[in-house]
Structure formats: C-alpha cells, structure tokens
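Weekly structure sync - notes
Attendees: PM, LS, DV (DV joined late)
Agenda: review two folding runs queued last week.

Item 1: First target. Sequence and structure tokens pasted below for the record.
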Amino acid sequence: MYIGEIAALLTAACWVGSSLSFEYAGKRVGSLVLNLMRLVLSFVIISVINLIITGGYQNINMTPQSFGILFISGLIGFVLGDVFLFQAFIEIGARISMLIMALAPPLTAILSYLFLGETLGLMQVIGMLVTVLGIAIVILGRGDQGKKLVVKHSWKGLIFAFLGAVGQALGLIFSKMGVRDLNPFVATQVRIFAGILGFIIVLTLYKKWEAFFQTLRLRHVMGRITIGSIFGPVLGVSLSLMAVKHTSTAIASTLMGLTPILIIPISVFILKEKIKLNEIIGALVGVLGVAILFLV
C-alpha cells in the first residue's frame, strides 16, 4: 500500500510549511525562544492526539530501552540540530537552509557506516558527491571581478545549516533504533519531551525567559509558530517515523529530501521571491544525488 512512501512525501510537504512559518517567527523572536515555544505547543497537540489514538495510553509497548534511545534522539534532533537549523533560517532563509539540509541523507549513510556497520558502495559515494555538487551550484558564484568562485551566502548561515543536517542525521539513526514496534506519534512525543527539557536548560542558561513570555502576546508570531508546530514536530516528525517504520530508510530519506524542490514554487508564486536559474538547477541536482545515494 506504499504507506511508508506516502508518509515520506507528506513529510517533505510538512517541512516546507514548517520551515517557512518558522523563518518568519524566528526573525522576530530568535531561535531559542521559537524552539521551546513550538515544542511546548507541539507537545500539547500530540498529547491530545495520543490520548485519543491509544485509548488513554494503553498498551503502547514502551520499554525503558526504547524510551532512552528516543530521548537521546530528541535531544540530538530537536535541541542540537534544530538550534542550528533555525538560526540558519534567520541567517540565510528557509529555502537555502533546506537545500543544505539535503546533506542529511548522505551524512546518515556515512554515520550508519561508521557506527552501525552498514556498507557504502561506489554508487552511494557518487550520490554524495552529486548532492554536494548541487549545493555548490547554489552557494557558489563569480566574484565581483568575475574571475574566481566565491561563496554567495553567509558563511555563518551555511555552517549552521550544515550542523542542523548533522543533528538530523544522528536523530534519524537513533529514531530508527527506538521506534521499532511503537506508535510513531508516541515515539514523537518522547522526542518532543526530551527537546522541551533540553531547551528549558538552554533558556535558563541564556536568561531568555522574559523574551519567551513576551512572545505569547505577539499574535502574528504565535500564529506562525502554531502552524509551524503542527506541520513540523507533530505531523512532520510523526510521518517521518512512520516512513522509516514502513519502508527502508533509503527510500524514506530520498522522498523526504524533496523539500528543496517543493519549496521553490511556494517561494516563487506565494512569497514572490526571485529565484535564480542556478538555484533551481542546484536543488534538482542535490535531490538527484540523494536518489542516487539510496536508490541505485
């Protein structure tokens, strides 16, 4: 019935909606406040969902081991990974950030090779190189003199996006290990819970609680955070876990990696952004690299 494949495609669509919403909100309240706010909202929403679909949290088959693995996955994915990704949204925008995030599947393959003993064949290496080429096409351009290639986007933003991709790759590996026989929505709730605890510590260290409570009075920002929370941590993450549960990580990662392409028409026709030809070509090449990496 292609449940996993459909879930992966829907995940990519959810990432588009959440990334654009969070870009708007993050530029107004900062990435730390935004992250905790969206996780709290997501936890409330997914708690209600799980209360209904599990019949009051009955027979969820949660073991201490799976809880621990998912908790670590939440800390890595939501705290470490998303802090950098959301800061990248602020620095270079959602569209370029999500293209850099196309590195997550190759990074997943490399980390699986290093830590899980999975093999890396020639075509997988070629796929990684093609993905890197696609990203290079977008972020590199001729300098003012037209003689040498220079990076056309903020180095800080690009590095943040890359670190976000590393966090997502590590989070996916731990999620695959922890979800097993669990309901994906229940597994997501554990990950969100871990993220909330992590950001409570972070906001306390950076003394951001005043800014957090001030955000509650910003209606437009709260509206975007709510929309992004529904499409991101609730639907997007749950669908991604459903995808890796019902199909191979390879196929799931490839289909979820379509976000850089899906975000282009939204940017052009709704946000009225001007997109250069090299950015479209780069996005297509990057996703092609992910397809080669996992499907050939």
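Item 2: Second target, run right after the first with the same settings.
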Amino acid sequence: MRRLALTAAALVVATPGCAAFGDDADGTQVAAAFYPLAFVADRVAGDLAEVDNLTTPGAEPHDLELTIKETAVIAQADLVIHEQGLQPAVDEAVEQNAAGDVLDAAAVVGLQPFADDHDDHGGEDDGHDEPHHEDDGHDHDGGLDPHFWQDPLRMADLADAVADRLADLDPEHADDFAANAASLRADLEDLDAAYTDGLADCERHTIVVSHDAFGYLTRYGLEVAPVSGLSPDAEPSPATLGELQRLIEDDGITTVFSERLASPRLTRSLAADAGVTTAVLDSIEGLTDETADQDYLSLMRANLAALREANACR
C-alpha cells in the first residue's frame, strides 16, 4: 500500500499542468515531517512560505503512514524538512518523490546517543550519524536519540539551517528569514536559561517517563528512566518494571510521567504498584485537541513546571 501511494502521488505530480488534487499554491512550499520541524519552519518562514505538517494532530509520528495526498505534498514541496530514521514512511517518500530541496534535521543538530541503561544518562555526541530507529526496548545498541527537540539550543541550530535553505529558494527575502531565525533563537535561549535555572536546585534529579523521548533533558542535570524504549507502545519486560519500582523507592520518586500521544496504561499501572502519582510530560512530538492552542515554547514551559513540582525544585 505504501508503494502504491508513492507511485500514485508521483503520477499526480508528473501530469503536465496538473497540481496535486487541483491545489496549485503560489509561493514557496515547505513540507515538514512532524510538529517540532513544522514549528521551526513556521517561525522562520513567517508569512513568506506555506508550511504543511505531514503528521496530523493527535497522531504518533513514529508510526506515520502517508496518504497519497501527503506523499504528493512531499513531491511538490520546494523544501522538505524531515529527520532521517525517525519516520520510515517519510524517508521512503522523500527518497522516491521529493523534487525540491531536502533538509535532514538529524544531520544539522548533531544527535546524542541513547543512554546505555537507566543508570547512565549523561554524555552527548555532536556527530552527524544517522539516528537509530529500531524498537528494541531499552537496549538501543549505541544508536542515536532522535528526540533532539527536547534541547532548545538544537532547535535554534535547526532554525538557522532552515533560514539558509529558504534564503536559497527565495533570495529576495533572505534577510527576513535570518531575522525570523534570530528571533526564534532568542526565544529558545530564554527557554534554555529557564530550564537551567529552574532545575538547578532540586531534591531529586531522576524522572520516570513513559518512553525514551526525554534523554536530551540530561543536559539540565536530570537522569531519565523510561518505561518503554523508542516506541511508546513497546511492552517493557517484568525485569524492567521491577527495576523501575526499586528505583522509585530508592530515590524517593513521587511521580511517574505519562504522555498525551501514548496510552497511559503502563505508567498508571507502574505508579499504582509503586504507590506514587502520575502527571503528564508532553513529548511535543505533535499537538492534540487538548494542546491545539499551544505551541512548542508553551509546552516546554509546562513540562518545566511539571518537572519542578515532581522533583521538589526550589
């Protein structure tokens, strides 16, 4: 079905004088694979380009399957922004259909490796290797963590790269794109400072989260213990659950964090067994009906407030 969609989309776009589904848009067209990439593209482009988010609100980006229409958007875009390895369906569609410029966020921001285990969450790698995307529980075999948007400074680096690509496509507005990227960088640096200050003095520094999407928070002194691996739907082993229960007891952890885009079944069960509460830590992989009026910046600040409360930060 995926290859059928790719072929059908290519035929639609290849038809002379016929845009996909009759929607022949003017101006620069940008296709962003999922919400954090779309947020950056929107802020940098302003009203000078049209940005389409390929992952619909409420959908889990890891499991995205593209429709014919979404594949046609990729084929017609002047710029496609994706993260190689995170969404296989998007990677395949980009390889087979993208006719414009392609920006791989993973190659721009420098992904850090997954922690080897729950007791080792530090260290960063500024290399540009491809991110690991196999769902193998907690053992990522030294792969790279794709959830870079939890680090505001990496988001700022992506914004600069998007501004450069848009300037190549629309040189007349290069100064506008650069100014928009600089404005976003200022907002993101303020956010980074809020995290640095807000998490500097806490009673606890370990958080138990739904899946392995928060490793970049280690730069603020946190240690992250995920219930599941890269996929939020992965089933943890009994040994992992037992380890997490001991960690909660030993470290005096009061909260197990669930997510809006993932089922809370496992986190609620773990919290109930351990006798602690649950709260929401948004992975910001996408918006939902509940967060439709928010954006990346406000959700990150809401996450900070939740972290400060859970870890008794002063």
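Discussion on item 2: The two ends are 53 Å apart (CA to CA).
Action: LS to circulate a short write-up before next sync.
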